[in-house]
User: Fold these one by one.
Assistant:
Number 1:
Amino acid sequence: MSESTNLDLIFARVKKASRTISSITEQRRSELLLTLADEITANSASLLEANSRDLSRMERENPLYDRLQLTPERLESIASDMRHVASLPSPLGEVIEEHILPNGLQLRRVRVPFGVIGVIYEARPNVTFDVFSLCFKSGNACVLKGGSDACHSNLAIISLIHKVLREHGINPDVTALLPATHEATAALLNAVGYVDVCIPRGGKKLINFVRDNARVPVIETGAGVVSTYFDAEGDVTMGTGIITNAKTRRVSVCNALDTLIIHSSRLIDLPALCSGLAEKNVELHADPRSFETLSGCYPAHLLLHADDDTYATEWMDYKMGIKTVDSIDEALDHIATFGSGHSESIITDNQHTADRFQSEVDAACVYVNAPTSFTDGAQFGLGAEIGISTQKLGPRGPMGLREITTYRYLINGTGQLRP
């Protein structure tokens, strides 16, 4: 049997199974997720062993190594997030609006699952757990296409998920893991009639490829070219903590800081603002004015001149750009030019400036006096996230249970006829 034929059979089985999920009671779905969360902890040794096989094939210096790595603490965090998802109310059946038409017809708009959600992702095995928990709780089936870097981890995870599904008497076809091949990616993007929506999670190259080649609908989860603007009226102590946290908490994630924009009147404070970055050996790519300010105040081997690509780069590494501006208008123009619509932040004590920043910055998440590292489904109280959408049509920002549902109209009559 050819791979394409085998993939079509997988899609068909998932599509058929998807019709059964919404009929499973919310209590049963929650109980399964709680069981799976316990199984993650109980099977941590085997999950970590599979993950170590993936890690052994990647250099530690690779920025994706951190994304790929599972640890006992990260597994417990995944289990905790899954328990949170289990505790959340299901959006299924929610009546969004209801009214009686003049002719007596009762019209209701009710929340329902998409059906089958395809997700393509790179070296992040935690996504396998997150996507399954959110899809299952919201009544969706899912087809997963992980990267080859995480193939052993993903196989161990999907095996555990299928085991728990069988133990609860639920068809394991409600979720499927495709082979880590280019052919599987192409098949998923062309699975018209089987897959209702495809969501890419990864870098800009992956997202662009999915958008440009998919024949099924796509929800873009954008690459994060993320900036923080330190305003003329920003607090240095607060700013130092925010900048350090946003840049160095986890450099390989999409909410990590890529560019610090600083008002020229505050260049004198730039060495202090970057002090936490120096301790973490962050390489700075600075424009001429900020470079001059930092010369002699920042490790010379970590201070470089910015070039034409600096401010459009999602670093995913211990690297960051610095841009000097003379006004809030210049800061807003810079973000409009180079931002990806993901997350942006301002550090200021001026409420008018803060309000203007949040009003004019076109991004899914816009912060005042807080780091962009908070752009995360769990941090937003969603339990987990299936991705962070940067598009404007449909869901935007971290996507939890409600964001992966659609709706249908239910119309009840008493024999009315249309004239």
Number 2:
Amino acid sequence: MASTATTRDLIIKVARKLFSQQGIGNITMADIAEAANKSRRTVYTYFQSKEELLEASIEMEVKKISAACTRVIMSNLPPDKKIIKLIFVRLQSTRSIVRRNSCLHSDYTLIVEHIRKSFDAKEIALFRHIITEGKQMGLFNTESPDLAARFLHFCLKGIEMPFINGIMSRNNDDKFVHAFTEKVVLSALGHTATTNKQ
């Protein structure tokens, strides 16, 4: 017999697949139950509505982004490499999720903003951690790691949609975008190697 967590996760994964293929408006709870090979009663035991299921599926996606970012933090990369990798892991993970859920565009955007408040706080904390580490190692020369982390977070949110939609790389290849981002971010953090070149 499947555990409660396994059944819940299965229902979320099935619903997410159906939503991403057909959109939330074209799917019923009965469709989800059938695709998951569960009774409607079982589905309703875990979720009261498909909107609640959509929210749970987006939470699952946000957790994936968070786990990918945490792996970067736990890596042995130096802080200057780590912060650039974190930015692109986050952007690429978000782009992958949005594209996979393209049928959900309006629903997705509204619910993501609601769900990602705790993720946003975690992202700022991750940036702060790397910037503080870099400052302690003499790689970054910024007066306030906290302010720098918040600024970087909001800049990242600003370029999210252009990156997802390919606008950032439409006229420039990925190498250029990566190199340009690295130069801008590291310069803003007072990266010692960047400062010494000037």
